[in-house]
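[Discussion] Sanity-checking designs against the backbone

I'm trying to build intuition for which residues belong where. Below is a structure token string of 341 positions. I'd appreciate it if someone posts a full sequence so I can compare it with mine line by line.
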């Protein structure tokens, strides 16, 4: 396990270095140094602060959905530990969710299935504000057709990204409503992956895990049902989820202010952010969407009218203030949680 984590960390560092080198080459070394030296440093710190507010509000969202009685700070530590795993593992951005549930269950003695139900519910709930904000960006984009011209491929990419997100969201809701379909899907997945699991765990027999898997599904679905009945908690969680996404978008906007680019249209900012985040879900072999998110964001900013150098620099600084900052902070908290555990 330790070798696996170390290998993944080195993979992230190498990919990050390659991205940095490519972006810096596009700008030019001397111009890059000049632009970096001209950045408004207090505004960069403000962007990091907005990123922290994003993390805190998402933690609060999780707190409203978890059955465990735990302090916000401890829950924040577990949230960041899971974020670290999400950022270094190529698992659809969900590799850290079981880690969050495990740490929470171990700390509070709550059923891991119930804890995992809270984690998944938080991810499900976060998608709704994310999609509505993305749709708002699209509406703003098309309400100003003379200011912003889109190529056909950009419109297709935008619609595909939003359609993919809605499809995933709908599939999750469907599995919640139809527990039998969720059970069938999980068992089919285990049978499909059994040969690959057998390479790691000799003698693995998926049939031996049937009862345990079914019990976990029942506990998990029961946890989701309990959360669904908590109307007041769901309403507050949804509100804080909106705040979380807004803080993240404010972080990007502050980055643009820090480099002196003040004319970016809000629709370009929101749509680029939405599509870039969704693009990070596609490459299952890349940790945390690293490289895909960066490239998509820079390209869309450029096609949205932002000068090439500014688009690349803004993307680098935003990813530094969010992805890389979150990864380092998450590693710190995961290390501390494992030591105390």
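Best answer:
Here's mine. Compare freely.
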């Amino acid at each position: 396990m330790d070798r696996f984590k170390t290998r993944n960390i080195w993979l992230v560092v190498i990919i990050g270095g390659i991205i940095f080198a490519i972006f810096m080459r596009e700008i030019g070394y001397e111009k890059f140094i000049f632009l970096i030296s001209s950045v408004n440093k207090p505004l960069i710190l403000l962007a990091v602060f907005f990123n922290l507010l994003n993390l805190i509000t998402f933690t609060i969202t999780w707190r409203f959905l978890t059955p465990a009685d735990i302090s916000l700070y401890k829950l924040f530590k577990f949230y960041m530990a899971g974020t670290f795993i999400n950022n270094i593992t190529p698992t659809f951005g969900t590799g850290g969710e079981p880690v969050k549930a495990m740490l929470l269950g171990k700390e509070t003695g709550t059923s891991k299935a119930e804890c995992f139900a809270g984690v998944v519910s938080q991810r499900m709930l976060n998608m709704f504000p994310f999609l509505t904000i993305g749709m708002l960006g699209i509406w703003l984009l098309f309400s100003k057709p003379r200011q912003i011209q889109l190529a056909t491929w950009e419109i297709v990419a935008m619609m595909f990204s939003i359609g993919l997100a809605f499809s995933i969201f709908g599939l999750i809701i469907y599995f919640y409503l139809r527990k039998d379909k969720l059970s069938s899907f999980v068992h089919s997945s285990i049978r499909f992956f059994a040969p690959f699991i057998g390479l790691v765990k000799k003698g693995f027999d998926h049939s031996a895990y049937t009862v345990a898997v079914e019990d976990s599904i029942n506990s998990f679905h029961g946890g989701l049902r309990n959360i669904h009945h908590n109307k007041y908690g769901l309403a507050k969680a949804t509100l804080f989820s909106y705040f979380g996404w807004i803080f993240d978008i404010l972080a990007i906007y502050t980055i643009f202010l820090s480099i002196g680019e003040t004319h970016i249209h809000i629709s370009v900012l929101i749509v680029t952010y939405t599509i870039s985040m969704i693009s990070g879900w596609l490459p299952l072999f890349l940790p945390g969407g690293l490289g895909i998110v960066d490239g998509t964001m820079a390209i869309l900013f450029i096609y949205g009218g932002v000068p090439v150098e500014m688009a690349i620099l803004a993307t680098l600084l935003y990813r530094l203030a969010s992805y890389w900052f979150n990864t380092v902070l998450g590693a710190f908290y995961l290390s501390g949680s494992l030591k105390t555990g």
